[in-house]
Design a protein that fits this description.
single chain; 212 residues; alpha+beta; Immunoglobulin-like; eight-stranded antiparallel beta sheet; 25% helix
Length: 212
């Protein structure tokens, strides 16, 4: 063996011996498995006990009157809200419906109060049924922190919008149930809509959407 190789081998053996000695030395405190294990368990326990806020809200709407409930006995309107405002600056509002009138549009609002006179309202989109009376729609908007700001007696007041309502978008769309003389309401972009079809009054005296 050449001298250079002998020298390198000896150096490596010396390093290995030092490493073994350091590991075996009783007062070496570089690694204490028991201590590390206990510290890991103690620091992890509070995290396991903490309850993280839900990032999703689910609820359903009900017909706004007994007459409408009788005319739409199989209606189901399920709402899912994925709470994402803190992460991406908006939430995702999802509507899944069935048993509704076919080929019908419903204007959808966040509301202060689910039933008349409704209070503050925010119109954010339409839900359209297909020929089978089914609908699926998704909207990007701020839901959990939604509010209206207005003046009352000269003072600015904040009103949280924690309820949901849906109106027949066409004033004649509710005629199948209420007749041709049913009221015309202003709950559409063109200022003319039918009556409110569904709302979240089943959540009263609370509200289905979480407070900010």
């Amino acid at each position: 063996m050449r001298a250079g190789k002998v020298f390198v081998a000896a150096a490596l053996l010396g390093v290995a011996g030092a490493a073994v000695f350091a590991f075996a030395k009783p007062d070496a405190a570089s690694f204490n498995p028991k201590k590390v294990s206990n510290e890991t368990v103690m620091s992890a326990a509070p995290a396991a006990d903490r309850k993280t806020p839900s990032d999703k809200v689910q609820f359903h709407l009900v017909p706004s009157s007994a007459a409408l409930a009788k005319c739409m006995p199989h209606a189901k309107v399920n709402i899912t809200v994925k709470l994402r405002t803190d992460k991406i600056g908006k939430d995702i509002f999802i509507v899944d419906a069935s048993g509704l009138p076919a080929n019908t549009s419903f204007t959808t609002f966040l509301l202060e109060v689910p039933g008349a006179p409704f209070g503050a309202a925010e119109y954010f989109g339409d839900v359209d049924t297909n020929k089978y009376g089914k609908a699926h729609a998704e909207f990007d908007l701020i839901v959990q922190e939604a509010f209206a700001s207005t003046l009352v007696d000269g003072k600015r007041v904040r009103v949280d919008l924690n309820h949901v309502g849906m109106w027949f978008a066409d004033p004649t769309a509710d005629d199948f149930c209420l007749g041709k003389n049913s009221p015309v309401t202003p709950f559409d972009g063109d200022g003319e809509a039918g009556v409110q079809a569904f709302n979240s009054s089943n959540a009263l005296p609370g509200a289905p959407l979480p407070a900010p």
